[in-house]
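How a chain folds remains the central question behind the approach discussed here. For one protein, we set the task of working out the structure tokens from the amino acid sequence alone. The sequence in question and its structure tokens are set out directly beneath this paragraph.

_____
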Amino acid sequence: MTNQTQQSPAPTQQWGSRLGVILAVAGSAVGLGNFLRFPGNAAENGGGAFMIPYFLALVLLGIPIGWAEWAMGRYGGRKGFHGAPAILGVWCKGPAGRYLGVLGVLIPLGVYFYYVLIESWCLYYVFQYLGGGIGIDPAAAVEAQVKTTHGFFAEVTGANANGALLTNGVHPIVWTFLVTAAANVWFVYRGLSKGIETVCKYAMPVMAILGLVILARVLTLDPPAGTTGQTVSDGLGFLWNPNFDKLADFKTWLAAAGQIFFSLSVGFGVIINYASYMKKKDDVVLSGLTASATNEFFEVVLGGLITITASVVFVGVALTMQGTGGTMSLGFKTLPMVFAQMPAGNLFGAAFFLILFLAAITSSLSMLQPTKAWLEESLGVGAKTSTTIVTFWGLLGNAFVLWHSRNLIALDTIDFWVGTFFILVVAAVQIIAFGWIFGVDKGLAEAHEGATMRIPPIFRFVIKYVAPLYLGVVIAGFCVFNLPGYLTTLFGDGADAADARLTWLFLLATIAGLVAVTYVGAGRMRRLGMDIDGRLPAKD
């Protein structure tokens, strides 16, 4: 047996500043989930009742697993790795972690397939509101306004038929999509510091300022004549006063945990990649906590208070709760009715959807970086080549989802499996690797390198026992309550089932490509003498 020595590849990209990496990670986390998914989940699951399991999941799952992911990424970077497969191979000490880590590349790439489309919807709504709105008559009956918002959304998304946006003429949303996709490609080509970091440094403050302006307006609203008569206080009460009966519903706890994972980008494959570009003495504990706190500000203070409070004031609690039914409904279907009733509603509508667009683009820019890094270290290609491959791969996925738009089946299938279920799997792999395979004490020691604050001792117990058990219950509940419906659709009859199966074929082709790259990359890195199985400590 030959002696294995560690060898690192050529110098890689680095962040321009610690603030830059915090804003980039926060930008990745702050996205459509904060302004669309969180308010919808909270409204659907009882408002205040949802917030109790939400904050428990934040403390017992989101923050500790996030700390673990930051530490894992930085340690992997010290050994010369930047892709989730290689880093999880090190922490899991073998090929099992490496191939499970493929999911850490699939998730951001797969979500990118549909996320850029939603991003373009947001930009299209901005243009529509700047041009006079989306055609809602504020004097019409609520039923007529609902019909208008649903019809406009179906037209923009092409939900009536596959290829609807490209047949009988090209719908203007397609041009908006091309502009959005081009912007993503441009900034990804510019790299970490000049691209992703620069966008986040400017976009995050703009989002915060616009959000605070809209929040101030929402908190000073008076109930318009002819509405339910419910006030801002009713909206705040709905969000913060718990209905304890809802806590007996396991789906409320499941939705809260799922929201935390989706929102914080934990298990998403982005944090582990971003942290790998940090130096040994860069503080991952405070950086992780700061990124999480920034995300919670945008999600709870801006996303929740703006969306739910405004909706309750103008359409009441009942219609706010009925305006859920998916990630998009409250934002794209209910809030336009609110803006139609609000003084200067078109201006505030444009500002709100501009926030959504900025939140979306700071997230989508992060989604290609993990795949790009993995291609570079696995195939030994340069940045331009890897960026060309990954942007083409992303555009191919965008085109697939754009064409297969009927009932948004393709989008929903990828969102459920890749953007929800696989995230839980990767998070489970990470917390088990950190707490049990690598060892919780060694893991915490790595996290504390260069830390100005230490992780509280109680979190040793949380990371080793509570988080894995809690996550196991969440995954089991997810399989019981959520999985059967999607399996019925997938293996059923009819057009929806056919679209779901076709989407899975596309995903399987993507997975096969990533596994092949992983196999080739493992051989290449082993030949370079790199410690791909984590047998040696990092030497720096």
Notes: DSSP finds 22 helices and no strands in the chain. The chain has a mean pLDDT of 89. The two ends are 25 Å apart (CA to CA).
